Amino acid sequence: EAKGFDVLLADHIADYRALFDRVRLDLGTSAAEDFPTDRRLARNVESSDDPGLKALLFQYGRYLLIASSREGTQPANLQGIWNRELRAPWSSNYTININTQMNYWPAFPCGLGELQRPLEQLVADLTVPGAVTAREVYGAGGFVAHHNTDLWRFTSPVGNGHAGSAAYACWNLSAGWLCRHLFDRYAYTRDVGFLRTTAYPILRGAASFFLDQLVEDADGFLILAPSTSPENTYLVGEEGCNVSQTATMSMAILDELFRNCIESCRALDVDESFRRTLEDRLGRLLPYRVGRMGQLAEWYGDPEEAEPNHRHVSHLYGLYPSDSIDLGRTPALAEACRRSLEFRGDEGTGWSLGWKICLWARLRDGNHALKMLNRQLRLVEGSEFDYSTGGGTYPNLFDAHPPFQIDGNFGATAGIAEMLLQSREAEVHVLPALPDAWQVGSATGLCAKGRIQADLAWGATQVRATIRTDTAQTVRISLQGREAGRYELQAGVPLEIVRERG
Ligand code: FUC
Fold it and tell me: Would you give the DSSP letter of residue 466?
């Protein structure tokens, strides 16, 4: 108060600019920019003429993360620091079966990696009560966490001491999922010290729990049993059922966690026998199955779905956020994911739409990703709740579940980043999902794994990429899904690639 508005504003601008200005995005301008934001939202329809609104949503998501997740603070929760209720929807908690993780999807790709620190601290905190839960509930080693946690870091199955639904109680994969964020810090920054002292011991704890829980199915594959596919239901006759022998998401998370643990053991040259155990189990995990409708099967045995348009798309975890399913390496599974997305449909809650933008971007379908983005930008007014669909954007650009829930903002920002740049170890994919409607544009400062940054520019006939790094390395680069070649990147020497627009 004593500082006064002008000084506070100047301080704020100086503080956030240092982070915010790392990434610029220009998707083209239009006359729509003369309208106020609520009018722009109202007139934004599919294939709209307002690409700048998408750039605004992208940067707004980055701004929100800067504003709500700084080292030493709590991680961003469901309503972030903007909750205005005494008791917010879902207690403004950490729902760790998608929502908390989604909050951090844009962090590294959008040049804001340090903002993930509060989440990393949360995962470190969970290891302590999580070890007690693993021991007391399962008789297992390592640590476990379930569907939710809060400021006090509870890790027990949800249900609050009352009879609850198995759909919520019987999901114990969140520690596995959260570990991908720790490994991402290493993947993006190559910070071996962080991997050694912070990430790997936590990954090892999470993997140890799952190693103790794996059982063989009738065919000799290892499964995590029982499992749910978060909050979704299948049919046994007329009855809805949530708990299956195992679920595709469970296997996808274990596959990723084991691979990341194995890579950590190699990078750190530690725990050889643990690594060998993981390699053995990894090779015996139940593989993905294509279901009877050509979709990626969500549950063990591919039973009929009770709610085919359910908002969660958990079985597609391997396509995004993980990368075990990939158009180039596993085209048949990628096609099955496409079928799954088509069956699920283009509706959803705010965060569900955000996830679908990322998934369509991974399928390199920029036009469908843009369709989902336009869907996310559908104006929502009023204070209604919708638990399963009706997602969009409020006049102030906050995400509408509805109600207000911040994860959809971060999911949309991450989705736009995925449309422009994707990466995995030693691979950079430039403009993999550029929609036809984005005729002219540019982006600077987007980040790829391995300490790589990319500046991009495109027009009606050409796409151009400038790739920079401070660490010499060999990478495979593709432009608009077409192989451009293998390149020896030199530290401090930008690599320029220009191609005709596809
Ligand atoms: C999950 C979702 C709901 C909501 C809640 C906070 O349970 O299924 O849609 O986002 O988290």
Answer: E
> Interior CA angle at 327 toward 326 and 333, to 5°?
70
Q: Is the pTM of this model over 0.85?
A: yes
Q: Which residue has the tokens 């006759």?
A: 237
Task: Tell me the C-alpha distance between 391 and 185, whole Å.
Answer: 31
Atom of ligand 1 nearest to the CA of 230: 8
Residues with CB under 6 A from ligand 1: 78, 90, 95, 99, 231, 311, 349, 351, 401, 405
Q: 166 falls in which pLDDT band (50, 70, 90)?
A: confident
Task: Taking the CA atoms of 73, 79, 83 and 89 in sequence, report the sign of the dihedral they define.
Answer: negative
**pLDDT value, residue 96:** 98
Rounded to 5 degrees, φ, ψ at 285 are: -65, 145
First-to-last alpha carbon distance for the chain, in angstroms, is 55
Please report, as a single letter, which amino acid is at residue 189: T
For residue 6, pLDDT beyond 90 = yes
Give residues with Cβ within 8 angstroms of 457, minimum separation 6: 441, 442, 443, 463, 464
Whether omega for the bond prior to residue 109 falls within 30 degrees of 0, making it cis, is no
Angle at 8 between CA 151 and CA 59, to 5 degrees: 65
**Cα 212 to ligand 1 centre (Å):** 29
Is it the case that residue 164 has pLDDT exceeding 80?
no
Question: Phi/psi class of residue 489: alpha, beta or left (left: φ > 0; alpha: ψ in -120 to 50)?
Answer: beta
